[in-house]
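Appendix C: a fully annotated inverse folding record. The material below is reproduced so that readers can follow the format used throughout the book. The structure is listed first as tokens, followed by the designed sequence.
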């Protein structure tokens, strides 16, 4: 079975150029990028049908990995198979990867200077506000809206969500097994598969420092970021708590401030938010570290997209699979909110930084069309002014 049907009304080079442009200019995070693809490819260009888009979005939500990147890979696969998926994915990721490597070089070169520290002082506080709003949006989209009827109807998802929030805040790390357990609990309650109903059921849950690196560290980077790409569900921001627990708490590759700066870099560059892994990899082990981190993170999502793609029409109709993913998503979004709390407690260090974070939240609420890059620029200027005159 294959998704490639009929002769497409566009060339492969047209699709590659589109994703190259989107990866270069597509600000706003995963939700915005997914919206751009629908607007451009379905509504305007009519290269992709509504059904094909919805199937791709469902697969991207079902499989672990960054949402927007997986959707782009799937849409490349629709008419041009594996070569289309590969080129679309590379075109989408490479522009922002180059940007974060250049920013990593500048950060290592100028990170000790007061002006750059002042910029990231403001940007880091604004990032807390941006992630808070993103966590709220993900909550209302993935768990339910904040009204009595919706909460009552989805009470189990809210329980899983709040448990994940509490565990993440208390342990200051995320637990992949918690997500899997949430998925199984919700699946068994809402849409138990046939094998659950049998009595004998058993299952197992399976300088710029350009060349500064060592082989051992690269191996650890490869292993850690492969897990990040293979086990993190949801949008690009869902990877934040996993990265935080690993690079800051477990391996101590980055300080708390450096991690906040890495998330800020993802916000001020176009393309997938998950590309921050390239910046982190660069700070840890130079350009080789950036390449290994990016490859290890995106390769699993690429494989999780192209391997089941030919058979996904059957998979997506399975109620048990859908319930399993809903349970996982609720726990993941809860962990994201918990991570926001943990990072905020460590990063909001004084009244000015708290005010910047609150202003960022208020701006995103009251100015619906305000783009995150503009907010980041304003916060950078505010940080410079505050550190220069106060």
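Designed amino acids, in order:
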């Amino acid at each position: 079975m294959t998704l490639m049907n009929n002769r497409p009304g566009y060339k492969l080079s047209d699709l590659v150029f589109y994703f190259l442009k989107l990866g270069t200019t597509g600000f706003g995070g995963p939700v915005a990028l997914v919206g751009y693809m629908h607007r451009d490819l379905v509504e305007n260009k009519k290269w992709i049908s509504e059904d094909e888009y919805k199937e791709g979005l469902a697969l991207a939500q079902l499989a672990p990995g960054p949402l927007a990147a997986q959707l782009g890979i799937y849409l490349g696969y629709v008419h041009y198979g594996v070569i289309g998926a590969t080129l679309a994915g590379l075109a989408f990721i490479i522009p922002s990867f180059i940007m974060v490597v250049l920013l990593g070089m500048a950060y290592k070169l100028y990170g000790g200077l007061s002006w750059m520290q002042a910029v990231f002082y403001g940007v880091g506080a604004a990032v807390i506000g941006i992630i808070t709003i993103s966590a709220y949006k993900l909550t209302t989209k993935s768990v339910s809206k904040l009204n009595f009827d919706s909460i009552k109807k989805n009470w189990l998802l809210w329980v899983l969500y709040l448990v994940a929030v509490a565990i993440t805040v208390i342990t200051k790390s995320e637990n992949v097994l918690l997500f899997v357990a949430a998925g199984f609990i919700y699946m068994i309650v809402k849409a138990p598969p046939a094998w659950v109903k049998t009595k004998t059921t058993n299952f197992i849950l399976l300088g710029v420092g350009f060349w500064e690196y060592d082989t051992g560290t690269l191996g650890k980077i490869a292993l850690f970021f492969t897990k990040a790409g293979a086990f993190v569900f949801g949008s690009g921001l869902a990877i934040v708590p996993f990265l935080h627990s690993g690079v800051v708490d477990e391996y101590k590759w980055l300080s708390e401030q450096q991690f906040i700066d890495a998330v800020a870099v993802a916000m001020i560059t176009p393309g997938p938010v998950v590309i921050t892994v390239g910046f982190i990899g660069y700070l840890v082990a130079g350009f080789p570290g950036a390449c290994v981190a990016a490859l290890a993170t995106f390769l699993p999502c690429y494989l999780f997209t192209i391997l089941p793609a030919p058979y996904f029409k059957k998979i997506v109709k399975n109620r048990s699979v859908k319930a399993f993913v809903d349970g996982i998503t609720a726990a993941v979004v809860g962990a994201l909110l918990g991570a926001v709390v943990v990072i905020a407690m460590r990063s909001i260090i004084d009244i000015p930084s708290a005010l910047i974070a609150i202003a960022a939240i208020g701006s995103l609420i009251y100015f619906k069309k305000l783009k995150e890059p503009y907010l980041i620029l304003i916060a950078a200027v505010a940080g410079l002014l505050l550190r220069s005159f106060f």
